[in-house]
Specification:
Largest sheet: 7 strands, mixed
Shape: elongated
Number of strands: 14
Strand content: 35-45%
Radius of gyration: 27 Å
Helix content: 10-25%
Order of helices and strands: HEEEEEEEEEEEEEE
Number of domains: 2
């Protein structure tokens, strides 16, 4: 029987067709394994969080007196703070905020190959994140929450684009800092995004009761306990 033409050796003595297919399959397999591993990791993390929330029964602030330090507790209430932060962009009273300003522009030189096509780009020019301890208040009392090391799901306060009408070269101020850039790019404007946990607004906390009676993170290295704060 004659060998299949697709499997015949090339002039150098190698299985040219089979070799290329094997390399392609090998690369595809490695890429698939990497993507699969990332998906499994995120799935397990999400499932762990959901499972933890299902295992923990909600309690009131007053019921914390019956809980032991180290226990995971779930609380819902209102954010209270006598000396709150002021969010950088919107100026709202809060106990946590994350603000970011990016510059959106097009390179004046195009794609570098003589083409007139210019792709819109962006670069981060400022970012600020602040958090402070606050009181969670419900109908039965108040408890201090120390948000350091917490995963915070904050409320989006603003996401706006501000067109820039100035000259394409020189110095401008954006996000509280001065930015220098020359004539090799054209600034279109600035996008400002801010998330925050506002004072006097509802909040959800899943954390660990500490020895001093506050709510905080689990011990270092703990895999079965989480510290979550959500303002949505």
């Amino acid at each position: 029987m004659l060998p299949d033409k697709s499997s015949r050796r090339d002039s150098s003595g190698g299985w040219e067709g089979s070799g290329r297919v094997a390399v392609t399959l090998a690369l595809g397999g490695v890429l698939s394994l990497a993507i699969g591993a990332l998906c499994v990791k995120e799935y397990l993390r999400t499932r762990q969080t959901i499972g933890l929330v299902k295992l923990v029964s909600p309690c009131t602030v007053a019921e914390l007196a019956d809980r032991l330090p180290g226990e995971v507790v779930e609380l819902k209430g209102i954010v209270r703070c006598a000396t709150p932060l002021t969010s950088e962009i919107t100026g709202r009273p809060c106990v946590y905020y994350h603000s970011m300003t990016t510059r959106e522009y097009v390179p004046a030189s195009g794609d570098g190959k003589g083409s007139s096509f210019r792709q819109r780009r962006s670069e981060k020019i400022s970012e600020n994140e602040q958090r402070i301890a606050f009181q969670l208040e419900d109908a039965t009392g108040q408890v201090t929450v120390n948000p350091f090391d917490a995963e915070i799901d904050a409320r989006k306060l603003v996401d706006r684009f501000e067109p820039y009408a100035g000259a394409p070269a020189g110095s401008i101020t954006g996000g509280g800092i001065s930015i220098e850039f020359g004539g090799d790019s054209r600034t279109l404007g600035f996008r400002k995004v801010e998330h925050a946990v506002l004072v006097d607004q509802p909040v959800y906390v899943l954390g660990v009761l500490q020895d001093d009676g506050t709510i905080g993170p689990p011990p270092e290295g703990s895999r079965l306990r989480r510290f979550l704060i959500s303002a949505r």
